[in-house]
Every structure is written in structure tokens, then in C-alpha cells.
Write a structure and sequence with these properties.
This protein has about 350 residues and is α+β, with helices and mostly antiparallel strands. Helix content is about 45%, strand content about 25%. α6 packs parallel to α11 (about 315-325) and α9 (about 240-260) packs antiparallel against α11. The radius of gyration is 30 Å and the shape is elongated. Adenosine-5'-triphosphate binds next to α9 and α11.
């Protein structure tokens, strides 16, 4: 009797300790029955403590891969590790470490398994590899062109009065593209590594928009595009990092001009809302298909790669916009109809 109470108390202490862990923990006896689960495991897999003793593990979790892994640990009585994707109900990746414990003579044997959630780490690793692959690919295209035309010139085209300047022009264009690409990538990585909040000031939104118009220069005139700024002179000042906000307008308006039609228009408006300032940049251009809306803010994503590249695009403009707005605790979104136009809307909180 005394032993039973002692045992109960010891179990209670153990459970309290395991419940304080963020990792999921389970204990199985040698027949594969669950004898203990901690709170984290219950939450991750939606299993209740009451179900524990009634079911074998395989019944409770229904993952054959995990089941055979655990059986193997019980049979070989060794420590093993495995990484598994599991539906919990959302898909997550777990690193699971299972250790056999106990001694034959004491009659208490089984295994203890700890579930480390490595979903975020793996996601980060994957996006890093994707990024490197994308960057290499983007750099390779202009480099291949530079290489090709340099060789052509050296092989004799230098003397070809008709074409030599044209070839040099292509080389120059690609050098400029590389330059742009690298400064955009640096800009993004600078923002990503900045843990500090941006330095903010009060300024007129109009000033930032006008600066962007100035930077856009001849592009809009060439296509005969009308730029309308509908922000009243007395609109309250915005509290943000001025350089960054100028960059946002440059990137959005550059797109609005670039993907516009001949003779189209670009309209910039601002609205005061209880949450802050809501700004929209609207164009009358080609529009963006609905299925691409969610992806255009990704690095290097372009709806029409060929077309964007022709226009000198690197596919980083909107990724930079999203980053800047998020650094300001704001949000950014898009509304668009094919062939009618696109509106980018962002909000910046008051302070
Ligand atoms: N206003 C717009 N109208 C139509 N399509 C757009 C518009 N803005 C962006 N897009 C689409 O979204 C893609 C991503 O835009 P983003 O600004 O990131 O890249 P980009 O303009 O191609 O290159 P970069 O901005 O680096 O010069 C574009 O390639 C284009 O397909
Ligand atoms: Mg762009």
C-alpha cells in the first residue's frame, strides 16, 4: 500500500516535470502500449491522457513509419533518431529521439521518445537553399550573355563596324543588370539582418511620392503615362523611415509604369484610417492573374519572366516593398483584374 502511494507520487512528479517541457514526450512499455504522454504531446497530436492506457501507440497516432521505428528501438534496445513529416493535423517535421530504458530484473522496461519540432528550422534551411539557387540562376543569365558577346567581339566582330557597338551595348545592358541585381540582393539582406527597428521621422507622403516620380524619369513619358497624385497638401504627416518609404513608392510606381499600357495612368492616393495611413498605387495596366497574387511578393517571382527581364526587372522589387512595410509593422496587399489594372495598397500604423 505504502509502495503504491509512493509510486503514485513519483509518477505525479515525473508527469509534472514532463508537462513543463515544450517537446512532446511519450513512454511506451515493451508491448508498445503508451504508459505516459506529456502535455506538449497531447496538444501536438490531439491525444488525451485518458486514451493512453486503452490504446496501443499505433492506434493512437496512426503513423506506420513512426510505429516501426519505435518497434525497432524496443527490439534492439538501442537509442535511435529519426526525422519524420507528420500530420498533426497540420504538417510538421519532427526529429524524434527514442531511448530504451530499464532492467530485466526490475521488470520496468520500455522506451522514452522525445519529439523535437524542427519544422521552422527545416523551412528556413530550404528557403536559404532556394534563395542561393535563385540568385545563381539570375546571375548566370546576364553573365552568359556578357561572356558570349565578349567572345564574339574578340573572335573578330570587333572589326565589324555594323555590329561592334551593338554588341558592346548588349554587354553594357547586362553589366547594368548585374549591378542592379546585386544591389537589390544586398538591400534585401541588409533589411533581413537588421534587428533594429527603422529610424522614423514625420514627413509629408507627397514628398516621398514626388521623389519617386523624379527617380522614375523618362520611363513614364516614353509610354505617355499620366501620373496623378491625389494626396491633399494638408494630409497629416506620416511617421516612417523616409528613405525606405521612397523606395516603396519607387518600386510600386516603377511597376505601375512598366506594366502599364500606352497612354495609361498611375494614381497615388492616401486615406486616414483609425489604424493609420492607407496608401494605394493604382494603374490601368495589364493586371495580375488571381493565382499569382499570393506569390508576387516572393523574391524573384515574376508573372511573365521573359517580359519582366526584357524590361530590366529582377523580381525583387515587391519583396523589398513587403519587407519595408513589415519593418514598419504595416501590411501590403494587391487587387487586380486582368487587362484592367492593378492596385497595390499598404498601411502604415500611426506611430
Ligand atoms: N503593377 C503591376 N501590374 C502588373 N503586373 C505587376 C505589377 N506589379 C508587379 N507585377 C508583376 O509582379 C512581378 C514581380 O514584381 P517585382 O516588382 O517584384 O519584380 P519586377 O518588376 O519584375 O523586377 P524589379 O522590380 O526587380 O525591377 C512582376 O514581374 C510582374 O509580373
Ligand atoms: Mg518591380
Amino acid at each position: 500500500m505504502v509502495d503504491e502511494i509512493k509510486e503514485k507520487k513519483r509518477r505525479g512528479q515525473l508527469k509534472a516535470m514532463l508537462d513543463s517541457m515544450v517537446e512532446g514526450v511519450i513512454v511506451l512499455d515493451t508491448s508498445g502500449k503508451l504508459t505516459l504522454v506529456n502535455r506538449a504531446f497531447e496538444e501536438i497530436f490531439g491525444i488525451k491522457e485518458e486514451q493512453v492506457s486503452e490504446h496501443s501507440f499505433i492506434e493512437a497516432v496512426r503513423n506506420p513509419e513512426l510505429d516501426s521505428f519505435l518497434k525497432d528501438v524496443l527490439e534492439t534496445q538501442r537509442t535511435r533518431e529519426i526525422e519524420l513529416e507528420m500530420i498533426t493535423p497540420v504538417e510538421r517535421v519532427f526529429k524524434i529521439r527514442a531511448t530504451f530504458f530499464g532492467k530485466e530484473e526490475e521488470g520496468k522496461k520500455g522506451l522514452i521518445a522525445v519529439f523535437y519540432d524542427v519544422t521552422e528550422i527545416r523551412k528556413l534551411e530550404r528557403s536559404k537553399t532556394d534563395f542561393v539557387a535563385n540568385v545563381s540562376h539570375e546571375l548566370r543569365t546576364p553573365l552568359a550573355s556578357i561572356k558570349g558577346f565578349t567572345e564574339t567581339l574578340l573572335d573578330g566582330a570587333l572589326e565589324d563596324k555594323e555590329n561592334n557597338r551593338k554588341f558592346l551595348g548588349i554587354i553594357q545592358e547586362n553589366v547594368n543588370r548585374l549591378d542592379r541585381l546585386i544591389s537589390d540582393i544586398l538591400e534585401l539582406s541588409k533589411m533581413e539582418s537588421a534587428r533594429l527597428k527603422p529610424v522614423k521621422d514625420f514627413f509629408k507622403i507627397n514628398d516621398a511620392v514626388l521623389k519617386a516620380v523624379e527617380m522614375l524619369g523618362p520611363g513614364s513619358k516614353k509610354k505617355n503615362i499620366k501620373i496623378e497624385i491625389k494626396i491633399p497638401e494638408n494630409f497629416p504627416q506620416i511617421y516612417a523611415n523616409k528613405d525606405m518609404l521612397e523606395q516603396v513608392f519607387i518600386n510600386l510606381m516603377d511597376n505601375a509604369v512598366k506594366f502599364n499600357k500606352e497612354g495609361g495612368s498611375v494614381t497615388v492616393e492616401a486615406l486616414e484610417t483609425p489604424a493609420g495611413v492607407k496608401v494605394s498605387v493604382k494603374d490601368t495596366g495589364l493586371g495580375i492573374p488571381k493565382e499569382d497574387h499570393a506569390r508576387i511578393f516572393e523574391r524573384f517571382y515574376r508573372v511573365d519572366k521573359g517580359r519582366s527581364r526584357e524590361l530590366g526587372g529582377t523580381g525583387l522589387g515587391l519583396a523589398i516593398v513587403k519587407h519595408i512595410i513589415e519593418l514598419h509593422d504595416g501590411t501590403v496587399g494587391v487587387e487586380s483584374e486582368i487587362n484592367e489594372g492593378t492596385t497595390f495598397i499598404f498601411t502604415i500604423p500611426k506611430e
